[in-house]
Amino acid sequence: MDFTMTGHGVSVQFKVLRMGTDCLVLAAGGDTGHIGAIAFGDRGGCLSNAREGHREGVVTELIYRELESVVSGGLAVLAGIHVEGITKEQITGVVALCEEGAHRIAAGLREYQQEQKEEKGGNQND
C-alpha cells in the first residue's frame, strides 16, 4: 500500500510493507525525506527513538498507536519529513496528515485481514 497525502503546502508519502504478521510503515516527505525517528515493537510494548535534532518521534508514535491494535506481529514505523523554514501551522498540518494517513493504513490493513480470512474460509469449503 503506497499513497501520498498533501496539505498545508507539504506532501507526505506513505509506504506499507506487510511481512507475514509483521508490518513496516514509512512516512517521508516535505522538501527532503530521510530517517528521523522510529517507533517499533509489538503488542507487548513500543520503543521509540529519534535522531538528534529530529522531531518526527511525535509522528512515529502517533502512527504506531493507531496501528498497534491492527497488527498482530511486530510493527515498525519510520518517519522523516523535512520542510525548510516550517511554520507552526505546517507542523500542525503534517501531524494531521500523518494521523489521517494512519487511519487510512489501519482501514487498509483491516480490509486486507478480512480478505485473508474470507479466502481461508472459502478454501475450506471447496
What do these coordinates show?
The chain is α+β, with helices and mostly antiparallel strands and 126 residues long. The chain has one domain (2-125): Ribosomal Protein S5, domain 2 (2-Layer Sandwich). It is 39% helix and 40% strand. The chain has 2 helices and 6 strands; from the N terminus they run E-E-E-E-E-H-E-H. Helix 1 runs parallel beside helix 2. It is globular. 25% of the residues are buried.
Tell me roughly what share of residues is in helical segments.
25-40%
Radius of gyration: 16 Å
Structural class: alpha+beta
Q: What low-confidence regions span 5 or more consecutive residues with pLDDT below 50?
A: none
Please report which band the strand proportion falls in: under 5%, 5-15%, 15-25%, 25-35%, 35-45% or over 45%.
35-45%
CATH-scheme architecture: 2-Layer Sandwich
The CATH class turns out to be Alpha Beta
The domain count comes to 1
Q: Name the strands of the widest sheet in spatial order.
A: 1-2-3-6-4-5
Count of helices? 2
Shape descriptor reads: globular
> How far apart lie the N and C ends?
30 Å
Pfam family, one: PAC_bac
Protein name: Prenylated flavin chaperone LpdD-like domain-containing protein
